[in-house]
Amino acid sequence: MDPKLLDILVCPLCKGPLLYKKAEQELICKADRLAYPIRDAIPVMLEDEARKLAPEEEV
Known about the structure:
Protein name: UPF0434 protein FR698_10455
Number of helices: 1
Number of strands: 5
Number of domains: 1
Family: Belongs to the UPF0434 family.
Shape: globular
InterPro entries: Trm112-like
Helix content: 10-25%
GO cellular component, one term: cytosol
């Protein structure tokens, strides 16, 4: 992921910051507990494509 892109990306729902999880290839929104996938180095910032984090998953 391009660091410049990571600096400007925010959660499309709450406009909050995102945490980049390199191993999982996901961008995590702590506030909404959603994980947005990164496919072929492109973040998919759609609510329908996001994975809901399980309560036991640490962020």
